[in-house]
Every structure is written in structure tokens, then in C-alpha cells.
Design goal:
- The chain has 477 residues and is an alpha+beta fold.
- The relative contact order is 0.09.
- It contains 14 helices and 17 strands.
- The longest helix is centred in the middle third of the chain and has 20 residues, at 219-238.
- A hairpin with an 8-residue loop joins strand 12 and strand 13.
- The protein is elongated, with a radius of gyration of 31 Å.
Length: 477
């Protein structure tokens, strides 16, 4: 039987603000010391009142504008009630009936809603210490409340994603959008962006039973968890068993999902409007009007294609690594619209320059003027591709002037006909049969002779000039 997968995604992203969602405690995801960025409000002390962070609201509204969504005029915050040690209040402030953003489209995937809520604390679970009377009978848990109350954006898609590959492409595009907008760094390895996938399979157009796979913390894990869950559900159905509606986690060691709990419904959370927070009328708040958006990822892709005509994979490198993209644009500007030179520069940046960089710490960039001069020399045939790579390595590790380096290292190619003619004549006389083969129409013979010429000049000859001289001499001799 042919099974069809249906996938809906829920993505949480921690937003970049100075303070937390409803208090003045510092919003610092890099803080390693536990429980230092806390206050009576985010710790839910009696008598404290929350205050809405306008910057967090603005970030979500910009996301809505970027994806062409409907921006709410009226919105409010709700209490989502459930007990867990990482929820200080016994409820989470979120949005339910009236989200900030509804609808929209990203990477061909329809969006249901985008709303704001506060993040939970971080729990760590430790094994028991046999030497400690307090923990020797079992493990224990620790809670760090630094993250509690951080502004958290949740984006929910329609159940229209068909496979893991599409899910990963969507998540990557959302990460790029958040970074372009300055809304979030969205580093998955740091927990700043987490993906949850609602997966079901069916042999008909009717949806199967939905299973939520939570807290997927890398694109690789998103892909593997979805693929595993699709296969797991198909196996359950093929056995004649029933797929349970539940929440599952991902076990990296076993490369498998595992059951955590039966899936809650919205009724289980007993949502109701938070009485301590005001309703928001977006059109009446001046700060939320006429918000300017930067150039968005898809707009930049289109501009790069139109202006520079470079390869799609190069464009994607410059979109993902914005520092590298800015370097490329400055190089392209200095090359004054010469598309051939720009394409050459793009190739050297995305292959050779990136390849010279250490595995950590990003790309080490040379001075713009030195790199541009190197590209002009390479494009003009003054130095070979091998020579360009050698010079680029020196520019990155030591610095210097491209032309001066080429002169000092003897990397300029020989193009003078008088200087190369003697070498050409000697090689022809030493390879009379090959020369005859070329005259008989065998083009490969010419490449062999050029190769011999490059060897004889220790790679210093300009291959194009050498080929031209061979053609002339072979024709006239």
C-alpha cells in the first residue's frame, strides 16, 4: 500500500531583546551561572505584575509582515495552565485565541499562526552519587531559572509538509529570516530555536493519527526524526495495530523516537485571558506602525541572480554567511559590474577562501583591495589558478600586496611569444609523431603538447598563450 505522510511544524525561537518577556531581568542566553538573571516577577512571587516587552512584540510583527501574514489589530495574552518544575507560576503566559499573526507563506508552506509566549526554565537531570546520602538512592533534578520568562516566538504551520526534506528546507529558511530581521540568532545547538514535528501517515486523503515529536535541536535531527517516525507509524499500521496520539522525544544514541506522554489537547491547558496584562490594540500603538524591513533572504537571492549571475550554490553561501556575503558585495562593487570577474571572485571566495579558514571562528578575510587585485591578475592571465591559490593563502595568513607577492615568488606567467617560441619549437621537434597526429585532426595531441610546454616551463607559461603559439608553429612548419 502507498502511504502518504502529513507533517505540521511548530517552531520556537528565543527572541533578541535586552530584557525578558514580562520583567526587567536580563535576557542573556549565554549566561552560564545558574539563577542569576531572575527577579520576583519571573520567579512568580506573590503580588508581582508582568509588563509586556514591546520589542518582542515588534519582532513578531516584523516576521508577520515578512511572510505576508495578517497582523492582528486586537490581541491578548492567555494563561496556559499546567504543572511542571520549570514553570514557576504553575502556568505559562502565552497566546491562544487572538495571536499577533495569522496566515502567511514561507518557502511554499502555509502558516497558521505566529504568537508570543514566555520560555520555561531549564532542567538538568543528574544520576545519583553513591557517596552522597542525599542522592545515593536515585537521581535528582536541578532547575536553572535564567531562561524562565525569556521572550519566545512560536510559529505553527498548516499540516501541508510532505516529507523530511521539505521540513528541513522550511526550518532553514525560517532561521535565515529571523537572523535577517535581527529577531533571533536562532542557533539550534544553543537551544535558541527548537522544532517540533506533528507527523501522521495514511493511505487515503484523510489524516492519520497525529504524533508530536518534540524538541528537535538540529536540522539533521529534524530530518532523521521525521523519517524514523514515518517508518515507525507505517510499521504499526502494517501490523494491524493502532497509532497512539502521543508526544514522543528523540533518542540520539538509538536514532529513534520514544514515547513521553499521551498528547494533551487545548482543553487540558484550561486557557483563559491573563487578567494582569492589558489587551493590545495594535493600530493604536505608534511604535508598531510603519516598521521597515531589511532586505529579506529571498529578495537577496533574486538580486544576486539578476545583478551578478553567479551560481545558485554560491548565492546560498552568501545568504547563509552574511559576513561572507558582505565581503563578496564589496568585491563585486570594486570590480565595477564585470560579470566574468565577479563570477571568478565568487568561485574563489566560496571554495578557496572558505577552504583556507579554520574549522572554528569563521572565515578569515583578506583586504578587499588585495583580493580584487588578485582577481584582476588571475582574470588577465598574469598568474595561473595555482598561483592565485598560493597568493590567496599568503594574503589570509600573512597579508601583503597581491602583485608584490607574485613578483617575489616568481608566480607571474610567461606570455611573451619570443620567450616561449624556442620552447615550443623544441617540444615539436622532440614529438614529431604527436605533431603529425595534430595535423591529421587529433585535437588531443595539441593538449599533450601544451602539457609538455607547461612542464618544461615549470608551470610558468600562460596556457592560453602557449596554446596559441603551438597552433601557429604547427600550422607553419
Amino acid at each position: 500500500m502507498e502511504y502518504k505522510a502529513t507533517i505540521g511544524l511548530e517552531v520556537h525561537a528565543e527572541l533578541k531583546t535586552l530584557t525578558k518577556m514580562f520583567c526587567n531581568s536580563k535576557n542573556d542566553p549565554e549566561e552560564k551561572r545558574p539563577n542569576v538573571n531572575i527577579c520576583p516577577v519571573c520567579m512568580a512571587h506573590p503580588g508581582t505584575l508582568p509588563v509586556i516587552n514591546k520589542e518582542a512584540v515588534k519582532h513578531v510583527l516584523k516576521v508577520g509582515k515578512a511572510i505576508g501574514a495578517t497582523i492582528a489589530d486586537f490581541t491578548e495574552f492567555d494563561r496556559k495552565n499546567y504543572f511542571y518544575p520549570d514553570i514557576p507560576k504553575g502556568y505559562q503566559i502565552s497566546q491562544y485565541k487572538y495571536p499577533l499573526v495569522s496566515g502567511g507563506l514561507l518557502k511554499g508552506v502555509a502558516i497558521t499562526r505566529v504568537h508570543l509566549e514566555e520560555d520555561t526554565a531549564r532542567s538538568t537531570h543528574e544520576k545519583g552519587d553513591p557517596a552522597s546520602p542525599e542522592t545515593s538512592q536515585g537521581g535528582y533534578s536541578l532547575v536553572d531559572f535564567n531562561r524562565a520568562g525569556m521572550p519566545l516566538m512560536e510559529l505553527v504551520t498548516e499540516p501541508v509538509v510532505k516529507d523530511a526534506e521539505q521540513a528541513v528546507a522550511f526550518a532553514k529558511e525560517l532561521q535565515l529570516l529571523l537572523r535577517f530581521l535581527g529577531a533571533s540568532d536562532a542557533n539550534m545547538e544553543k537551544g535558541e530555536m527548537r522544532v517540533e514535528a506533528n507527523v501522521s501517515v495514511s493511505t487515503t486523503d484523510t489524516f492519520g493519527t497525529k504524533v508530536e515529536v518534540k524538541n528537535l535541536n538540529s536540522f539533521r535531527v529534524v530530518e532523521r526524526a521525521i523519517n524514523y517516525e514515518i517508518e515507525r507509524q507505517i510499521t504499526v499500521i502494517e501490523k494491524g495495530e493502532r497509532v497512539l496520539q502521543e508526544t514522543r522525544g528523540w533518542d540520539e544514541k538509538k536514532q529513534a523516537t520514544f514515547s513521553q506522554r499521551l498528547k494533551e489537547t487545548s482543553e487540558d491547558y484550561r486557557y483563559f485571558p491573563d487578567p494582569d496584562l492589558p489587551k493590545l490594540k495594535i493600530s493604536e500603538i505608534e511604535e508598531f506602525q510603519n516598521m521597515e524591513l531589511p532586505e529579506l533572504p529571498w529578495e537577496k537571492r533574486e538580486r544576486y541572480k539578476k545583478e551578478y549571475g553567479i551560481k545558485d550554490e554560491d548565492i546560498e553561501s552568501f545568504i547563509v554567511d552574511r559576513e561572507l556575503g558582505a565581503f563578496f558585495e564589496r568585491v563585486a562593487s570594486a570590480l565595477s559590474g564585470d560579470k566574468k570577474a565577479i563570477a571568478l571572485a565568487s568561485n574563489y571566495i566560496t571554495s578557496d577562501l572558505v577552504g583556507l579558514s579554520p574549522s572554528a571562528g569563521g572565515v578569515r578575510l583578506p583586504q578587499i583591495e588585495d583580493f580584487v587585485e588578485l582577481m584582476k591578475m588571475t582574470g588577465a592571465g598574469e598568474i595561473s589558478s595555482r598561483g592565485a591559490k598560493d597568493i590567496l593563502k599568503i594574503l589570509v595568513t600573512e597579508g601583503g600586496n597581491s602583485r608584490a607577492i607574485a613578483q617575489q615568488r616568481g608566480l607571474f606567467q610567461k606570455s611573451d611569444e619570443g620567450e616561449l617560441a624556442a620552447t615550443v619549437l623544441r617540444i615539436i621537434s622532440e614529438n614529431e609523431q604527436v605533431a603529425a597526429d595534430y595535423r591529421a585532426g587529433k585535437e588531443a595531441a595539441l593538449q599533450y603538447l601544451v602539457g609538455q610546454g607547461m612542464r618544461a616551463t615549470s608551470g610558468a607559461a600562460n596556457p592560453a598563450a602557449l596554446k596559441k603559439i603551438f597552433e601557429e608553429k604547427l600550422k607553419n612548419l
